[in-house]
Design goal:
The structure is a homodimer of 121-residue chains. Chain A is an alpha+beta fold and 121 residues long. The first copy, chain A, has a single domain, classed as Arc Repressor Mutant, subunit A, CATH 1.10.10.10. The first copy, chain A, has 6 helices and 3 strands, in the order αααβααββα. The first copy, chain A, is elongated, with a radius of gyration of 16 Å. The first copy, chain A, starts with a helix and ends in a 9-residue tail after the last helix. At the A-B interface, helix 2, helix 3 and helix 6 of A face helix 2, helix 3 and helix 6 of B. The structure holds a DNA duplex (30 and 30 nucleotides).
Chain lengths: 121, 121
DNA sequence: TGACAACATAGACGTATGTCGAAGCTTCAG
DNA sequence: CTGAAGCTTCGACATACGTCTATGTTGTCA
C-alpha cells in the first residue's frame, strides 16, 4: 500500500477537506490534497482519467484507453499513479484489467474548488 | 507572458473544458487543464492558494500568507507559478503586492470534476 | 539622498518525474 | 504444455521541479 493510500485511510471521514475558499488548509491537509491534484497535473494522466471517467459506468479496460501517444509501459505507469492517488481502482477480469473512477473522491475534489460566496457589496 | 498564459488567451471561451466524465479530453485540452491541476499539485502552493482564497475578498498581501515554512524567495516562486497557471492575479499597492484568486478559473476547475450522472440501473 | 522594508530574480544543487526498451507475470486458446 | 495477448515491473536516462542563498528592484519615509 502506498504512503498516500495510508494517509487516505487514516483520514477522519469522507469529506477530506473544506473548500479552498472556506479556510486555509493545514499542512497535513495540503499534503494529502496536493497529491490528488498532482495526479491530475500531467496531460497524459489527465487524458487517461478522462477516458476512464467518460466511459459507460466510469470504467474501462486498459486496452480501450491506451492510445494516448506514449508507450504501453508508460500508460501502465500513469495508471498506477492515479490508483495510488486514490482516483482510480483496478480489477482484473480474465485477460483484461479494468480501471474505474472513485466517484466519492471526484466529488470531494470538486467540493474543494467551490468558489467563495459573493461578498455583500 | 508565459506559454501557458498564451494558451489560455487563445482559448475559445470561458468554460475551458467539459466535465472529465462527459467526454475524453483532447490532447490540447489536457495540456491546458493539467497545467492548472499541476499548479495546485504542490503542498506549499496549495496552502498559499488556500490562504489567498480564504481571505476576505479572496485577496491577500504576500506578507499575510508568506508563513508556510519555506523561504521568502520560494514563496515568491510559487506565487509566480500560480499566476502563470491563471489561478491568481497580482497587483502592487504601494509597498505591498496583493494576490487575488480568479473566481472564473476556480469555477471552471470545479466543473471539470463534476461526477458522472448516475446510470439508470 | 540614504536607509530600510517588501518582493522579485538569478544561479546552483539535489531530487523527483516522465519516458523508453527489455524482461516478467497472468490468463486463456489450442 | 506451449504460445500468444494483455499488463506490470525493472533499470536507465534526460529533464523538470522545489529549495536555498545572494543579489536586484521598487516604493516609503526621514
Amino acid at each position: 500500500m502506498s504512503k498516500l493510500q495510508e494517509m487516505v485511510a487514516a483520514l477522519p471521514a469522507e469529506p477530506c477537506c473544506p473548500a479552498l475558499t472556506e479556510r486555509e488548509l493545514t499542512a497535513e491537509e495540503a499534503e494529502l490534497t496536493a497529491a490528488m491534484f498532482k495526479a491530475l497535473g500531467d496531460p497524459v494522466r489527465l487524458r487517461l482519467f478522462s477516458k476512464v471517467a467518460s466511459h459507460p459506468d466510469s470504467e474501462a479496460c486498459v486496452c480501450d484507453i491506451a492510445d494516448v501517444g506514449v508507450s504501453q509501459p508508460t500508460v501502465s505507469h500513469h495508471l498506477k499513479k492515479l490508483k495510488e492517488a486514490g482516483l482510480l481502482a483496478s480489477e482484473r477480469r480474465g485477460t483484461w484489467v479494468y480501471y474505474r473512477v472513485e466517484p466519492a473522491v471526484l466529488a470531494a475534489m470538486g467540493r474543494l474548488l467551490t468558489p467563495a460566496p459573493a461578498k455583500a457589496a
